[in-house]
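Lab notebook: predicted structure, single chain.

Context: the supervisor wants predicted structures on file for every construct in the current expression panel, including those that have not yet been purified. This is the next one on the list. No modifications to the sequence; it matches the entry in the shared construct table.
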Amino acid sequence: MLAAIFGSYVLIVGFGDVPAGGPIRVALVGFLAWTAARLHPNRTLRRLALWTVPVAVLSTAVISGVLPGRVSVALVGAWSTVLLVLAMVGLVGALWERRVVDTATVLGVLCIYLLLALLFAGIHQVLAAFSPHYLNGAPEPPTSSDLLYFSVITVTTVGFGDITPASLPARAVTVLEALVGQLYLVSVVAGVVAGWRARPRPADAPEPPDPVDGPDPAASA
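Prediction complete. Output recorded below exactly as produced.
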């Protein structure tokens, strides 16, 4: 799951604005949604992902070929947002059912945090496709790489200042993303990491024999 998420980052940054980048991005995000849905105990989410992913990939490929430009850009952002919501719901359900904090739980929580940046990048992409002068310091409309970069520095509350929101929708989403990212870190991630403990050995478990000295001769006598 983590490898696929990082693959999505690399794809968006390096190839997000080439003609085939949109459908490939939706397909990769759809793989994340399907993988997470399979972990969810509810079969309804699996069936929803099973139908949604092919429709998303096919419609994105068709629209990107027929109507390149703002419409296809907005469609890629919209489908990415929907599929990422499905992926996050699947992960949250799977983590809720575990009822134990272990390495898999920590990795799942970190996956959700990385998905948040992708989710808000998709929201920004939809709004930027139809909002004039959406971001300062980025072309018009902003590229997928710029939007993901802006989303990452916002959700991590780094805020370099080279790209800033220029429109009211951009400011609203940016404020929401910064709050969600910071609250998620100080509450969910901090709570899970604090509860992550090595499994203690039972107190009544016998001590393992010393492989060097062997059994105590006095105890045998």
